[in-house]
Amino acid sequence: MSEPTPELPGDLRERGVEILRVLYPDLHGVARGKDVPLAESGHAIEKGLPFCKAIMGTDLRHTPVVPHGAYPDLIARPDLDTLRILPWDPTVAACLADLETPEGETTPPPDPRGAVRSAVEAFSGLGLAPVIGPELEFFLCVADEDAPRGIRRRLDRLSMVYTVGPQADPDGVARDMARDLSAMGLGAFAVNHEYMNSQYEINLRHSDALDAADRAFLLRAAVKDIAAQRGIVATFMGKPFNDQGGSGFHFHFSLERDGANAFAAPGDDDGVNAELRCVVAGLIAHAPALMALLNPTTNAYKRLVPDSLAPTHANWGWDNRTTFVRIPPERSGATRVEIRVGDGSANAHLAIAGLLCAGLHGLQEKLEPPAPIDGDAYAADAPGESLPATLDQALDALEADERLCELIGAETIETFLAMKRFECERHSQWVSDWEIDEYLYHL
């Protein structure tokens, strides 16, 4: 007997909704999708929506790097558990989609969201549930024909970090973003101006890993949409300006067992158990490969320098913000690890899938971490393997990490690698402003 077709909530039309927006992340983390008139949504829910599979292997200059043969379809099936009305456009109800292989096709599509789900299921087999708390930073900019590259920071005033109100947020754009994100159930509980000029952070509450990845993905899409409505530009690009630091994407990672924090060990001198140490060991063992997922652009590596509060080596420490993995000081139900190296440009689903799979390997093999770093992890004699310094190096490390690639999924990783290698090749051949300024008049 076939399962009944899921239906949209019956009150959507009464609430003024006219469009069902079906979204999914591509390998860049960009929101792709289709808008479906509400009257036509039943067919989309029952059959799914077809997309050309090549979108998952297309670079940001719209070159289909991995066309997948004869350009077959993938099917995006609406996941109505993720349905939310958009407060900034209440005629639209948006949901995420599960990606499927059409009938007659045998190769699954690259699927960042599916990779998170698979990792969560693997943890479930161990009686554990991963919990993630994402933190994202971004810049708000305006178009300006007289500015370099036609863009400038919306607010260009030093030392506005942790300030709120009109001086730090003219017209309340960031405040309104946080309000709307909270209203749509994304768990946005605080907003503030960050350290850099016109940089902001919106904090999301922690939750199960798939929901956290979904909410981080929706936050980025929402922030960019709300900014576009205001005629401004929001960017999560890691380092958009030479005279400022960059935007990070931090991940707080814990495990639950039977609803309780599985990392907590009140009787231990450090208040953490062996499972936390195994996860830390897995994260460090796979750190070079994880860099490609956590810092997936050539620009991201310009942000990773000493004294930037972003790590340069694969190591860990107790409440140490200079290390790859930090163990925050809270214990009991708040015991967790924090991975601090992520770039604002990272695909939330791919990054979280990678972190989960690395931690899973640590647990499965009962890996032991090295000694923690006490003090400045940027010091010349600080232990720990140097992290890849370029996207090329990180892609090499990812490709060489067979265990991590297998756990995340071959189709997803192979497409990601091909697309990103093509991006690196294009970058290496591009004449930059720096080269013109440095050489043209002198040589």
Secondary-structure blueprint of this entry?
Blueprint: E1 19-25, E2 31-37, H1 41-47, E3 49-52, E4 73-86, E5 89-100, H2 112-124, E6 129-143, E7 151-153, H3 173-183, E8 188-193, E9 199-204, E10 207-208, H4 209-229, E11 233-235, E12 249-257, E13 260-261, H5 274-285, H6 287-294, E14 313-314, E15 316-318, E16 325-327, E17 337-339, H7 348-364, E18 385-386, H8 391-400, H9 402-408, H10 410-428, H11 433-440
Parallel strand pairs: 1-5, 15-16
Antiparallel strand pairs: 1-2, 3-4, 4-5, 6-7, 6-9, 6-10, 6-11, 6-12, 8-9, 12-13, 12-17, 14-18, 16-17
Q: Terminal Cα separation, in Å?
A: 76 Å
The dominant shape is globular
Number of helices: 11
Question: Could you describe the largest sheet, including whether it forms a barrel?
Answer: 11 strands, mixed
Q: What's the architecture of the largest domain in CATH terms?
A: 2-Layer Sandwich
Q: What level of helicity do the residues show?
A: 25-40%
Detail the poorly predicted runs: none
Over all CA atoms, what is the radius of gyration?
Answer: 22 Å
Strand content: 15-25%
Name given to the CATH homologous superfamily of the largest domain = Glutamine synthetase/guanido kinase, catalytic domain
CATH class of the largest domain equals Alpha Beta
**Arithmetic mean of pLDDT:** 95
Count of distinct structural domains: 2
User: How many strands in all?
Assistant: 18
